[in-house]
Amino acid sequence: MDALSFWDYMLILSKYALVIFSFIVIERSLRSMLSEKYDNEIWAYIRSGKERIPVYHWENLLGRSASADIRIYAPGISGVHAVLSRNDKGQWKVYDVFSRGGVWINETQAGYGGAPVHNGDTINLAGTRLGFIELEEEKIGRLEKKRSVAGSRVFPAVTLIWLTLFQGALLMQHLMSCEAEYAGRISLAFTAVIVLEWFCYTAMRMINKSGFELETLAFFMTSLGISVAASSTPEDMYKHAILVIASVFLFIILGWWLRNLRRASSMRIPFAMLALALLGLNLFAGNSIFGAKNWLTIAGYSFQPSEFVKVFYVYVGAATLDRLYVKQNLYEFVAFSAICVTALALMGDFGSALVFFICFLIISFMRSGSIATVVLAVSAAVIAGLMAVSARPYVAARFATWGHAWDDIFDKGYQQVRTMSAAAAGGLFGKGAGNGWLQSIVAANTDMVFGVVSEEQGLLIAMSSILAICAIAVFAVRSARHCRSAFYSIASCAAVTIMLSQVALNVFGSMDLLPFTGVTFPFMSRGGSSLISCWMLLAYIKGSDNRREASFVVRPAEKYSRWEDPRLQENNSGNKAGKAGKAEVKKS
Fold first, then answer.
1. DSSP 8-state assignment for residue 135
2. Rounded to an integer, what distance in angstroms lies between the CA atom of residue 76 and that of residue 526?
3. Smallest Cα–Cα separation from 541: which of 453, 476, 497, 482?
4. Predicted TM-score of the model (pTM)
5. In the structure, what pLDDT confidence band is assigned to residue 576 with cuts at 50, 70 and 90?
6. Helix (H/G/I), strand (E/B), else coil: 476
């Protein structure tokens, strides 16, 4: 038996180090996101008798139902009776959502179009009178300062140091296994992502934002994606580094755009038209690869329009802010969704069509609260799926192969069998970066990326990538209850639904636990379109982070313009004059 060399010992040491570093990064991120206290923002109060009920959101359901944000127990009150909403100018409105007893503001009935409500007004719900008390900007600022600051328990800079160590160990493995001509390119790619993450963190700290857990987890998975690219296509590392930088840049741009909800809502229709135009162009001018016509080539560069449509789809689904529970808005979104899913099905991209459909179910339920709508949509999807299986032979073949990959290891089960074999060969700690053989199989770095990571880095690292996505999902669901606006809540849940769906289809499909659909793994699969869309979807999840000083997407509460009410301004002027007079008396 040959003695182990120094480099063999370094490889073994790096394998254990990678597992330790990865779990420390995920544990610290999870502990920071889930253990820190969530203090709701307070924008106004509803006075019911002697009780003052705080208003935590910009879109609030009023009624008897358990799903109502402000529950009112009184005769004649419907389950969901009215909606109290605020825009980012500070103007409040009350809408009647087809209640039995009606809604009035003072003596004015609030119908389908709603009615403005001002400080001190009376909201009459079927004879039950409620007082509306809006908080002044100064009061909102004082309450904001009492909220817990993000990152106060688990310092994000320390977590980022552990991530940098993980990336350094990963780079060392590649340098020990790669050809000399690619060492510089691989080093540059890893150095670029390390510099980029520290630059982003420093920039966030400069604007007093301390929540960096989501970005840390995204950079963790992006680093694994760079490792996969370095193993499979080391000649393209310059291109991959540029794509990572572009993805983070677009993440910041979209986050900045979402800060203004009025602007976001106004662009709903143009973004929907852009999404449909991309799908139409893809449908008629796209290139077919592996049976799916989901690629476009422009000026020699290929990309997948469906990846960008995911970003637009979530935007359109969440951007109807004017009123909730309005069926016309829901029907428009259903029609838009049907066109998107049908176009993807016609292209043969049934994996993406399924991801879109699952996302549609989440958005439609959050927008309507109707189980009947979801059941109807699922029934229609089952019928459409059966028609697709009968009309598309290769789709039927994939379903026939499901669970029987080992029956035909050289044809229909070729990819799944090799993915399972490579994952098993990697064991818990892997063979080391660049030492696997699965990366040489066609589409291994996209559709079978979980197998590549399992073989080279081991099952523990591969499972940590799944855990990272699950951590983001748990955080998004937890944050959704505290979002100031329904836009952030719906967009965040929809975005994380897309990520979870892709992870499930990619991992279970490549392991023959689900039909193989060829869907990418978020952040890790090679491809600029997928990477950019994942980082942009992360901007929606970042918008749901409503902790104090956590997210650059969410503007500080005290920075919003105070609601313009002439009566309130007069009262404030009188109060200031009174305070000034008392000060003069005290001084004399």
1. P
2. 58
3. 476
4. 0.87
5. very low
6. helix
